[in-house]
Structure formats: C-alpha cells, structure tokens
Amino acid sequence: xxxxxxxxxxxxxxxxxxxxxxxxxxxxxxxxxxxxxxxxxxxxxxxxxxxxxxxxxxxxxxxxxxxxxxxxxxxxxxxxxxxxxxxxxxxxxxxxxxxxxxxxxxxxxxxxxxxxxxxxxxxxxxxxxxxxxxxxxxxxxxxxxxxxxxxxxxxxxxxxxxxxxxxxxxxxxxxxxxxxxxxxxxxxxxxxxxxxxxxxxxxxxxxxxxxxxxxxxxxxxxxxxxxxxxxxxxxxxxxxxxxxxxxxxxxxxxxxxxxxxxxxxxxxxxxxxxxxxxxxxxxxxxxxxxxxxxxxxxxxxxxxxxxx
Length: 308
Ligand SMILES: O=C(O)CCC(=O)C(=O)O
Ligand SMILES: [Fe+2]
Prior knowledge:
This protein is of the alpha+beta class. It contains 9 helices and 17 strands. The strands form 4 sheets. The chain has a 9-stranded mixed beta sheet, covered by helices on one side. Strands 14-8-16 form a 3-stranded antiparallel beta sheet. 2-oxoglutaric acid (AKG) binds next to strand 7, strand 16 and strand 17.
C-alpha cells in the first residue's frame, strides 16, 4: 500500500468552519479542529447513489464522525443505510431489534449498559474490528446522555517524537472479558452459555498500538480502556503504567467532539481511528439508542504496512 503524497481527505478543509460538498451540495459544518462535522441536506431514508456514497465516505474519512439531524429512520432503513457501506456485524452480546438482528438496542430500561460510559472503540476484541457504526437516538432524557468522540490520529500526532518512536512496533492485547465480565453478562444460564461461546470464539487478540488507517494512511493510537488489557513484551507494571498514560492522553478534551443529541439524530463514525464515551448522567430518565455496525478489516501497524 502506498500512502505517500498529500492526504487528499484533508486538503483545503482545515481552515474552514463550514463548506459545501458533493453532487448534492451538502452543507458541512465542522465542530472542532480534529473531529466531527454536521452534514445538512441529506435524507438517509432514500438509497444513496454511488456518487453520494463515495462522497459521504470521503466526509467520514475527513471528519472521523459525521452527524445528520432529523432522520427518523426505521430500524430497517438504518440497517440498509449502514449496509451500503459494507457487510454488517451481528453483535455477540447486545440485544437487538426484533426482525432486524443487525440493529443493537441500547435501552436503559431493558439492559443496564453503563459499560459505554468509558472511552472505547467498538469490538476491538475481534481480529477484525468494525470499520464504523451508525447510531440513532430514539428516546432521550430531557438533558444529558451526550456522546463524545475522540480522534485517535490527533492523539497520536500530539505525542512527542520520542514517545511515537517507542510505540512504533508495539502490540497490545484486546480482551472481550474486560468490558463484558461474566459477573454481569452471565446472570442466567442462557446468558452464561452465550458468554462462554463468545469467549471461546474470541480469545484475547493482539493489535498494533499504532494503527495505520487502511484508507487514508493516517496513524492513530489504537488502545482503548474498554478492551485493551496489556501491552505485549513489557513487564505487567510497565504495561499498566504505559496504558494508563495512553488512556489519559486519549481522553484529553483537545481531541474530542461532544454531541448533544436530539431524537432522530444519527451519528456515523469511523471506528478505525476514533474512540467514544456515552455520558451516563441522566438516570432515572429513559434513553434508547439503536446501533448498526459495519464490519472492518484486520488492523495493521507501521512495520506491517511497509512490507505489504
Ligand atoms: O449510547 C451512546 O451514545 C453510545 C453507545 C456506544 O458506545 C455505541 O453505540 O457503540
Ligand atoms: Fe461503543
């Protein structure tokens, strides 16, 4: 793969607050220097043309998470939209919409999912973590329940040359049980059996600490508090100390965007170069989100990209 030359997804946009883009003349409003933009003028219920799909992918690569207001999709429409960007993932643990198994339900009255109130990248316990996800707000508390996204490339770029060099060839373990412990996800016999099956199918996997984005060639920090347990080849204490530093660094507000939801809003993020955090500050109010997740490829680091 050759990523030399100017990164065309960044060209000319970093000086703008808003701009028009694409064949449909969408209005793009940037929300922070490194991550996040609103796209106005898009109707996600209507299948996108190949041109619009390519343009939207371009915007996703550039802004890492994009937001579309007032979409009001049915779960099937949400599935079809996400499905036009790749094969869809079926989550091994989360409950789903009846008849739409690709749509995960995050409902505070059905399942006590406080687990998303920590910085994480989805499903990195898999050999091939998702490329992205499409999340829609269906029911919201009066206030609170915002979601934050962080740019893993901005976090990487802000490291010193010395730290970058020492992370260059490191790998880390990502473990399903860190966010899905048996104590909370094995309360009934059926849940326990499902948990055992998932754990057997997903032993801890090794991913590069610095991931090269397969489409843009950008580097991003690819460890997350949700699933990363250990940096390989270090003593346990060294690994814990380095991970603690990297998690704290990734959580700096400089790399973030915060989205205050309205019902009918959709967020579409690039899961290969971002982390997110669902703020859990609205109990006992009710919040329902639906997520459809798009499959991704096997992460590779700087040394591997040089060979391939
Ligand atoms: O509920 C949210 O805002 C985000 C939940 C989450 O982590 C996800 O959908 O992957
Ligand atoms: Fe998540």
